[in-house]
Design a protein that fits this description.
CATH class of one domain: Mainly Beta
Structural class: mainly beta
CATH topology of one domain: Jelly Rolls
Distance between the termini: 113 Å
Largest sheet: 5 strands, antiparallel
Length: 404
């Protein structure tokens, strides 16, 4: 029996009587210093041979005033910080909190904060705040939080600004959404997840104002409605190959043969298409998208082939002008005003501005898919000028469009 008792006695003697290596009593007078009252480093960082203070139990005097404190290194104000009433208690459980503690009184009366700083291997757990109904004190006491960051805590749903932030880890797994998922075509339940939310609607669309949100709408077959008609009714599918829809196009694309007006940076524009239905994806050549006009040529004197259009230019897509090889006359294709058969402000398109400065050759240019010539001025005519009466034959195709 003696052989067993001796090791047990040695084991008991080897356990420290206390886990506390360092203790200091400090009093802080919490006044209105703007930078905040704090512990000194000598209070917290003990001399050689001791652990630094990693906990503190503090009580403010009941005859003093209320004060606020922060532990993020930022000075509190009379309205921002954790509020401690007169006679309240505070417990700190780590060195960083002690080093960053700053306090200021909330009114004209200063508070005296009496603290016991110590280095405990196991910091205590005790109530926070003063005079709350959080239960009894001790290691298993309730924690009565009444404020966070100087703001009172309220139960129930509230705004984001009045809520505690919640951080989700970057490696967080997928979150499970409670509730049944509505299948495609099934009646909507209280939980509308699993399919893209959209409203099936056959009646008139709601009238929206600037800045309002709009739900996605689908017709009864599930097709997404992307452009209502001008009357507000739902668009339906058109008969294939150009029949006009009774209630508007199924997709908001404008058919246009003219060049749209120049838009400024940031403007909203609608997509548009050619009469063939081909979507215009860039500001392409007028001869590629516009409706071409064919002009036959058979003349023995200078003639206006194309009469100019206001605010537009004439884009020539193809031209063929032929004369007999034995002819001695010269000719020019020019742009100018009608009054004198392009004789005023004339500009040569093929040859010079007059027939005398033209060519005596036959010319064939262009395949109709792109512009080969255009007038230099809005509303100018296109004229075929000839120096004598030898007949000229051929053709010309063109498109009228704004300058580009």
């Amino acid at each position: 029996m003696k052989k067993i008792l001796l090791p047990l006695l040695l084991l008991v003697w080897s356990i420290p009587a206390s886990a506390q290596n360092y203790t200091a009593n400090v009093q802080l007078t919490i006044d209105n210093t703007a930078a905040g009252i704090s512990f000194t480093s000598s209070d917290i960082l003990a001399g050689s041979g001791h652990l630094q203070a990693n906990s503190a139990s503090c009580t403010s005097n009941s005859s003093g005033g209320d004060f606020r404190y922060r532990v993020d290194g930022v000075a509190p104000t009379t309205s921002v910080g954790v509020l401690v009433p007169a006679g309240g208690n505070i417990v700190f459980t780590n060195t960083i909190t002690l080093l960053t503690f700053k306090a200021i009184r909330t009114a004209s009366t200063s508070a005296v904060l009496s603290c016991t700083l110590s280095s405990l291997l196991e910091p205590p757990v005790a109530p926070v705040g003063g005079g709350g109904s959080g239960g009894s004190s001790g290691p298993t006491a309730d924690v009565n939080l009444t404020e966070v960051g100087g703001a009172a805590i309220a139960l129930g749903q509230t705004t984001m600004a009045a809520s505690l932030p919640v951080a989700i880890a970057s490696d967080q797994g997928a979150l499970t959404v409670a509730g049944g998922l509505a299948a495609n075509g099934a009646a909507a339940a209280t939980n509308r997840v699993g399919t893209l939310p959209a409203i099936v609607e056959t009646a008139t669309l709601p009238t929206l104002t600037d800045g309002r949100n709009s739900a996605l709408y689908v017709n009864e077959s599930g097709a997404l409605v992307v452009a209502p008609s001008l009357t507000g009714a739902f668009a339906t599918d058109c008969t294939f190959n150009g029949a006009i829809c009774a209630t508007g196009p199924p997709v908001g694309v404008r058919v246009d043969t003219t060049t749209p007006s120049a838009e400024a940076d940031g403007d909203m524009v609608a997509p548009w298409a050619l009469p063939t239905g081909a979507l215009v994806t860039a500001n392409i050549d007028p001869c590629s998208r516009g409706t071409k006009v064919y002009v036959p040529i058979s003349q023995a004197t200078s003639t206006v082939l194309v009469t100019g259009t206001a605010s537009n230019r004439t884009f020539i897509c193809s031209v063929a002008i032929m004369q007999m090889s034995s002819a001695t006359q010269t000719w020019s294709l020019a742009g100018g005003t009608t009054a004198t058969t392009c004789g005023t402000s004339a500009v040569g398109l093929i040859g010079g501005a007059t027939a005398a400065n033209g060519t005596d050759l036959s010319v064939t240019q262009g395949n109709g898919a792109s512009t080969i010539l255009k007038t230099d001025t809005d509303a100018d005519d296109v004229c075929l000028l000839q120096s004598s009466t030898t007949r000229l034959n051929g053709w010309l195709t063109y498109v009228v469009a704004p300058n580009q």
